[in-house]
Amino acid sequence: MSGKQNLGSFKSLARGIIGVSAFAQESKSSKVSPTEPVKRKHRVKSIGGREGLECNITQASSSKSERAFSELIIGSLPTQLQEYAIIEDLLFVMMGIEGKYIEVNKADGLTEEIRYIEGIDYVVDSTLDPSLKDLAERILPLATYYTAIEAFVETYSEMKYGFVNHALCGAIRELLKEYLILITQLEHQFRTSSSFTLQKFWFYVHPTLHTMSNIHSLVMEIRDNYQDSVEDDDSHNGYDELLNCDGFSKKNSIPQQVKGGGILSILSFRMSQLSGDPDTKKLYIYLLSRASKPYISMMHTWIHHGEIRDPYDEFMIQERKNVKKEHLKEDFNDTYWEMRYTIRENTVPPFLVPFQKKILLAGKYLNVIRECGIAIEEPRKKTIDESVAESKADRTDVNVNSDVLLAMDGGRFVENIEIAYKRANRTLLDLLLKDQQLLARLRSIKRYFFLDQSDFFTHFLDLAWSELKKPSTQVSITKLQSLLDLVLRNPSSVAYTDPFKEDVKVEMSSVGLVEQLLRIINVEPTAMTRGARSITGTLVGGHSTGGGKQLTGIEALSLDYVVTFPLSLVISRKALTKYQLLFRHLLYLKYVEQLLCNIWTEHFKSFHWREESGHPSITSWKNRMYALRQRMLVFIQQFSYYVTNEVLERQWRILQSNLAKLSTVDQVLEYHTDFLDTCLKECMLTNAKLLRIFAKLTHTCVLFANYTDKFRKSLMALKSQTDGNNSGAVSLEQQEKTLHKFEDNFLYHIKLLIEALNFYSATETVQFLCLVVRLDYNLYYYNQPSKR
């Protein structure tokens, strides 16, 4: 339908609503144009030729006669002349002009401002004939409604009230125009027809009274909502500052309840509540269809271009200007995807509530594409029509009033939302999966952070061991990065064919793994049973607060990965931090395993350990040491196998399966986040109690490995003593006591870990039972008596 046809249909609708067509036949039969000036003496003759009144009117040039006429009491006139005078007053009053016998009611005690807003109340001369007075008082509310509506239109047409209010005022102005045309036609009938009476006047304006009453009720509700919102805002000091701190730019002070979606909500609610009256329903359909056009236009720009063109903060989607995509690579707590664009609470029109999520996501998807520098083309109408023909939007689960759909162009916006959402989703999915190679990126990250096919990393550790033994503050990151690049570029390395190997970077953490994890799960590391610390302070300024031992290079070693937008939506700084935690966890397990393997090598190759001591007590002490070393090594190896094969690899297969059948971008984010969270949880990195027990166990293993050299020297001294050399005497009893402490400590904590795993397998994840079976095979530790 063309613009002219639309305007014509609205005009005809407005005329039907106001009731102007009631005069169609009578206007055709009239010979005098409504706009043709008619002298009052003609009107008097047509009433019946009252010579006295005609004389007063024709001699209006005389000031004395005018004064006499103005001081004339209407009740002293004949009834027919009273009717003539009151009709003439009504025609003026209905346009907001005070009459001679109908005056403004100044006894109501209202101020001029309030009277202007709520509508002027008029009173009829008390001397008027009672029957005429009753009819006039029935008509007078029209004058009150008109003045109140006119004041509303004048006020809410200001720019600060927004496009929706402007459109609503435009629609009401069309109705007021038809109302004035009605008054013109009434005046025409009054001046040309001798049979026109006050009763006929009432008959013609009665339908309009109902329409004007509904419009007046609407504008009063909008004004009341405005007043309530202003009072609420005044009671919340600092509200504006809070909005600005959150990144929302408050462009004007008009409350959301009386602009944009708030106005459409009022219209749709009133339409549904008053739909039992056909005329009222028709009125609100007209007002809603007109008022919603700017809003639907803003929605169209959002879902088809990813842009918010909303200078007056009317639209249901709001933008945080201070949330930028660059923060994704830097800030652990950055919530670009969740907080850059959000829905304004309690301002979404009811007919858009079922579609609000799709509207939000469609624009967010396109906004990501636009920020990548990719041009977004306007969808061709042909494409939209074809898409609608092929796949109609499913409305079976959408609770939208059919009358609202009728007002909104027959519900065409439903199909437009569905088409825009699918188009934006598919475009961004293709960008991530094909252009940005998301799956290949994730496989690359898995290779480096999960030590998958990690022959290159073993080579790197061999080359960098001399550097990694130093304190972390003395390690040269530049040297480590050069060694890593050298290893990755080695043609014999598996990583040589990885196109993203240049994005892997070496970094040193300033806080230990266990301390960092305990901070993340809100446990103070210096007092593990006391208060919590926020995750923000943990990773933004993560320096060790305690006066503990300084980290070595191997303990502080971590990897980083360079990710650009839009991949940083999926592989954000938060996700990379989780990858780093898992990497450091695996690396520490490998480190402890290497220490224990070095002990095994020494025990196997060293002459002092292989030689028969010839003393049963020393032999028993050595055997106990071998057994403890083996139990520790088995524990670390079984735990490493559990982490790599039963957690990381299994969850990776699940992630691959989910990514192969995904249909939305949000599913990509959800699956990837679930993958990392599940890996952290099943690796015991999110439970403070399990983490503390595991830290005690690994610390015991490291202490035992570092104490091996002392054990070796003690063994040599003990053998010298058995040979009769008492120099540097060492007590076997003291060495057995030291070894006994290691045995008791390890046994106590591994039994405690198994008990905790059994408990948390019932409350957190059943996956812990797999680890229990591996650690306590054949209930070996369960049957061991506790020595504490």
Short précis:
This protein has 35 helices and six strands. It has 788 residues and is mainly α.
Describe the model:
The chain has 788 residues and is an all-alpha fold. The protein is 64% helix and 3% strand. The chain contains 35 helices and 6 strands. The strands form 3 sheets. A two-stranded antiparallel ribbon has the order 1-2. Helix 15 (293-305) runs parallel beside helix 20. The chain is elongated. Residues 1-11, 27-69, 237-245, 382-399 and 523-547 have low confidence and may be disordered.
N-end to C-end Cα span: 88 Å
Residues in β-strands, percent: under 5%
Largest sheet: 2 strands, antiparallel
* Rg on CA atoms, Å: 43 Å
Strand order of the largest sheet: 1-2
Helix content: 55-70%
Mean pLDDT across residues: 78
Class from secondary-structure proportions: mainly alpha
Number of β-strand runs: 6
In DSSP terms (H or I, runs of 4 or more residues), the helix count works out at 35
Q: Which geometry do the CA atoms define?
A: elongated
Unreliable stretches (pLDDT < 50, length at least 5) are 1-11, 27-69, 237-245, 382-399, 523-547
Characteristic terms for this protein:
elongated; 3% strand; disordered N terminus; cytoplasm; 6 strands; single chain; cytoskeleton; gamma-tubulin binding; two-stranded antiparallel ribbon; GCP_C; Spindle pole body component; 788 residues; mainly alpha
